[in-house]
Amino acid sequence: MELPVNKFKHALKAGKPQIGIWSSLSSHIAAEILAHSGVDWVLLDTEHSPNELPMVQNQLHAMQGGAATPIVRVPWNDMVMIKRYLDIGAQSLLLPYVQTVEEAKNAVAYTRYPQDGVRGVAGATRAAGYGRTRDYLKQAHTELCLLVQVETRKAMANIGAIAAVEGVDGVFIGPNDLAADMGYLGNWQHPEVWKVMEGAAGKIRQAGKAPGILVGEADGQRCLDMGYLFVAVGADVGMLVRGADALAAKFKA
């Protein structure tokens, strides 16, 4: 059994824009639907969603056979959490609230086996094909995609150095948290926030890494034009709310 190829990781390395959808419904059915929608990636959120490890494993199962790469946002940049999500087969991770080079280096170490890191060793996990994947322990890191999330002014001050950390594949901007830290809570569309986000994309690309962001459909192309490579242009919760509200309004009117 061969190690699965991470299409998303290789696409970023080749500089190919990747369009995604954010999934917060914590549902394997929603994940399966999105996986076959034609987008390149689907973010399975566990930071701001009631999504737990066994549920995420079900979502990974459901997405098999779809064209979209699953990316799991773990709740925190934590060694134990990261180990568990890697063991259930997540090959692409987004780690929130990384502010320093040291935190970025820790994130890399949490995804690597000794002596390159501190990931705990288990041979019969889903990630290793339950022990069937040849040389998994030696090869796993080659297909892991590590994305770190920067969302504060402190992180922005260190963004070039964070992006340059070996083992970091991409740097994701969190617009809402960034806006809040800049004093524009609830207003990530403020021109000053956009100015910082545009500058961030350039610094990340200068370091040879992929910049990413979550915005709405209306701003997706603007971010691609700024140089962002992986862009989420919608979220399942928002799409459901807008669709349901519009349908109800049509007939209740």
Secondary structure: elements and pairs:
Elements: H1 7-13, E1 18-23, H2 28-35, E2 41-45, H3 53-63, E3 69-73, H4 79-87, E4 92-95, H5 101-110, H6 136-139, E5 145-150, H7 153-157, H8 159-163, E6 170-173, H9 175-181, H10 191-206, E7 210-214, H11 220-226, E8 230-235, H12 236-252
Parallel strand pairs: 1-2, 1-8, 2-3, 3-4, 4-5, 5-6, 6-7, 7-8
Helix pairs in contact: 2-3
Structure keywords:
about 250 residues, alpha/beta, about 40% helix
Short structural summary:
The chain has 253 residues and is α/β, with parallel strands linked by helices. The chain has helices spanning 7-13, 28-35, 53-63, 79-87, 101-110, 136-139, 153-157, 159-163, 175-181, 191-206, 220-226, 236-252; strands spanning 18-23, 41-45, 69-73, 92-95, 145-150, 170-173, 210-214, 230-235. Helix 2 runs parallel beside helix 3.
Domain count: 1
Beta fraction of the residues?
A: 15-25%
Which overall shape is indicated by the principal axes computed on the Cα atoms? Answer: globular
Low-confidence stretches: none
CATH fold node name = TIM Barrel
Count the helices. How many?
A: 12
Tell me, rounded to a whole number, the average pLDDT: 98
Biggest sheet strand order reads 1-2-3-4-5-6-7-8
The count of DSSP E runs of length 2 or more, i.e. the number of strands, is: 8
What is the class in the CATH system? Alpha Beta
Distance between the termini: 58 Å
How would a textbook summarize the main sheet?
Answer: 8 strands, parallel, barrel
Q: What class would the helix/strand composition place it in? A: alpha/beta
One letter per element, helices H and strands E, the order comes to: HEHEHEHEHHEHHEHHEHEH
The CATH architecture comes to: Alpha-Beta Barrel
Give the helix level as a range of percent.
40-55%
Write out the CATH superfamily name.
Phosphoenolpyruvate-binding domains
Radius of gyration: 18 Å
